[in-house]
Specification:
With 302 residues, the chain is α+β, with helices and mostly antiparallel strands. It has two domains: 92 residues, Zinc finger, CHC2-typedomain (DNA Primase, Chain A, Alpha-Beta Complex); 190 residues, 3-Layer(aba) Sandwich (Dna Topoisomerase Vi A Subunit, Chain: A, domain 2). The protein has eleven helices and 15 strands. A hairpin with a 2-residue loop joins strand 3 and strand 4. The longest helix is centred in the C-terminal third of the chain and has 15 residues. The protein is globular, with a radius of gyration of 20 Å.
């Protein structure tokens, strides 16, 4: 029989610091920049209260959800476990108050875009006309390390950026990161015409892959990367469209075709009431893989 947990118990549990919880549980974590990586399950990475266990297609946020996923606890068991040891509490208010405003580090940007463009067109198969257009609109750049920079722009101001490595690191992985102090609920976005619809993606590459696949069909659309599955980014982008005078007629969820992506799309698809929602998931895992499959199919026909 499940133990009863009070609302106070739940509130305490929700505010427990995920890293402190795991370290005191004896989990071997190693800090890598702004992330922590589990040293036994090396595809498990944690940033703040968010986690991604890539080998198992597990993505989520919150220490309660992590305890349920990782330790197989029920909701009451997780809540009670998090109340037992006096774990460190994540002071979100203090973090927000001390957070510095974002400033785009233009000193790291280089004029030569050759490496970034080659990666996008040759490695990721993004259509060259799209890449050149993004460059002309100053929505992409290349930094001194050869990373592709995807600039988050709102009203002409850069409020954050994604960075994507173009060559493997020593451990074979490709670098992915978000600039420090980037606006928490913003993301990389592109307007095609005068937008009256929003398409939501998990990454800039997925958004551009989708555009490449449906280049002849997309009109009057805003493509938005949530840099993951961020509910607040979705909400803020819908609000921003309204503030800019655009009536949102359609919202399309183009998340990854994995457990987390499907759950996010299905959950918020059901909750939409003011706009007509739809779901367009790739057959493959994500839209980048879908584009690669399409390009491969075309080359085989030839």
């Amino acid at each position: 029989m499940a133990k009863h947990v009070s609302a106070d118990h739940v509130e305490v549990a929700r505010n427990v610091d995920l890293i402190d919880y795991l370290e005191r549980k004896g989990e071997p974590l190693k800090k890598e920049g702004r992330y922590y990586r589990h040293q036994v399950h090396d595809s498990l990475v944690i940033k703040d209260q968010m986690y991604a266990w890539n080998s198992r297609d597990e993505k989520g946020a919150g220490v309660i959800n992590f305890a349920k996923m990782f330790y197989g606890m029920s909701f009451p068991e997780a809540v009670l476990d998090l109340n037992e040891q006096g774990y460190k509490v994540k002071d979100k208010f203090q973090q927000q108050k001390l957070k510095e405003p974002y400033q785009y580090p233009s000193q790291y940007e280089v004029n030569d875009r050759t490496k970034a463009k080659a990666y996008l067109t040759k490695e990721r198969k993004i259509h060259p006309k799209i890449v050149n257009w993004l460059d002309s609109k100053d929505l992409i750049a290349q930094d001194k390390l050869g990373n592709v920079v995807f600039k988050w722009k709102q009203h002409g101001e850069i409020v954050g950026a994604d960075r994507q490595g173009t060559s493997p690191m020593k451990d074979g992985r490709m670098f992915k990161g978000i600039d420090r102090n980037s606006h928490g609920s913003a993301g990389f976005s592109v307007d095609i015409g005068k937008p009256n619809s929003i398409y939501l993606f998990e990454s800039p590459i997925d958004a551009l892959s989708y555009w490449s696949i449906k280049r002849e069909k997309l009109q009057n659309t805003r493509l938005v990367s949530m840099s993951g599955l961020k509910r607040q980014t979705m909400i803020d982008e819908i609000k921003r469209m309204g503030k800019e005078g655009h009536k949102v007629k359609q919202i399309t969820f183009c998340t990854d075709n994995d457990k987390a992506g499907r759950e996010f799309a299905n959950k918020y698809h059901r909750l939409m009431v003011t706009s007509v929602p739809s779901i367009d998931l790739p057959i493959k895992k994500d839209w980048s893989e879908e584009l690669e499959k399409k390009i491969l199919g075309i080359s085989r026909v030839r």
